[in-house]
Every structure is written in C-alpha cells, then in structure tokens.
Design brief:
Blueprint lengths: L3 H12 L10 H10 L5 H13 L5 H6 L2 H7 L6 H19 L3 H5 L3 H9 L6 H11 L9 H9 L9 H11 L4 H18 L21
The protein binds a DNA duplex through helix 2, helix 3, helix 6, helix 9 and helix 10.
Length: about 220
Amino acid sequence: MTILPELYHKLYHAFGPQSWWPGDTPFEVAVGAILTQNTNWGNVEKAIFNLKKQGVLSAKAIHEMPPDDLALLIKPAGYFNIKAKRLKSFIDFLMNDFHGSMRRMKTGDMYSLRDKLLNVNGIGPETADSILLYALEKPVFVIDAYTKRVLSRHEIMEHDRPYEDFQKLFHSSLQTDVQLFNEYHALIVKVGKTFCKRRGPLCEKCPLHGLQYSHG
DNA sequence: TGCCAGGCCGGGT
DNA sequence: ACCCGGCATGGC
C-alpha cells in the first residue's frame, strides 16, 4: 500500500483530465517522444510543424532523407544533429521489424517491444516507455524528471534511485490500466510545470501541499 | 541574462 | 555499477 492512488486523485481533482499525448498519429507521438528529450515541448512542436509543412512526417520520407536535411528541419528542437540520427535509428528499426508500420508494432508483446526499443541507439527507458504508453497504448508507467522531482519533494522516494525503482513503485501500487497511466503521468507533468520547479521551495498553492506519506 | 526544458550516449573510473 | 561531459534551441 502506498500513497500513489491518493496522489492521483488529488491531482485529478485539481487539474482534471489532461488528454495526452499531443500528436495526431502514433508515428507522430513516437517522433515527439524522441525530439522532446531534455527539451521544452514548445520547441518540439516547431520541429514537428516543419516536418508536416514539408510533408515528410512519415517513416518512408524520413527514412529516405539525408541526415543533414532532417537535422535542418528539426533544428528548433535542439540537439538537432544527434536527434536526426536517433530518429533515423528508430525508423530503421520500424522499417526492418515492422515494415514501417506503427500498427504492426502495436501487435507485439509489451516486454519484448520494450527490450527491442532499448536496443535502438538514442532510445532510453523514458523514451521507450513514452512510445509504448502514448503511441502503442501499452500499460507501462513513464518516469521522467518531473516524476522523480515530485515524488522526492514529497519524500515518497529518493531522487537518486534508479528509473526502475520509481517505475516498480507505480506498477505495484496501481491497477494495470493504460488510461490511468496516461492521465497520471500527464498530471505529474502538469503539477511539476506549475508548482514544482527545479529551483524554489514547496509552494503552498500546490494541490499536493501537506501530502502525507505512509509508504513502506 | 542566465537558467531551464517530458534524456541519452560514450568514455572513463 | 556509477560518474561526467557533450549535445543546442527558444522562452522567460
């Protein structure tokens, strides 16, 4: 038993449904997951807009594009050279294993897909899980900087614990439910952006202010 | 104006 | 198994 269900209800009550992920298609969601690595989402939107404007937001088009051309289009997202390479690595995998189809990828088993994604250069645990949850609708919880910060600020788990420890806590505390995992992570990002900055004290206006902890 | 944003890799200890 | 430098733009 942990406080995580109560935490969810407090966030949902305060902010309501978030309806993530911003993206028109599963492929767009996967691209966004890679582009947003350590990067403001607003910059990612600019990059995706450039791809759409050029009519190249597809596996085939990006697969056939020279890396330098791709880098130029995604420039607003930052780290554009390395991200161009990472996008191409992901799309190589998508082409080789699933004929470039996210719909085919979705038919795969979650754990084998996760292992395969982690073997793609440029895809770590957060990006893999974001693709699994938000693009493929697999029930896996996404841990990000906000999740670590919010939980550690409220002394639910120490900040320097590994990704897997945070993820196991969510998995063992909640029903295995795609919609729940989706909303919960989105709500954590919401409260993190609004009240839980990297610098600064705990805000008294935060809906989680005074949250008791009773884990362990 | 410096700090920060929904990480990850590769090389070194 | 950790630790660290590098990667880069745009908003506040």
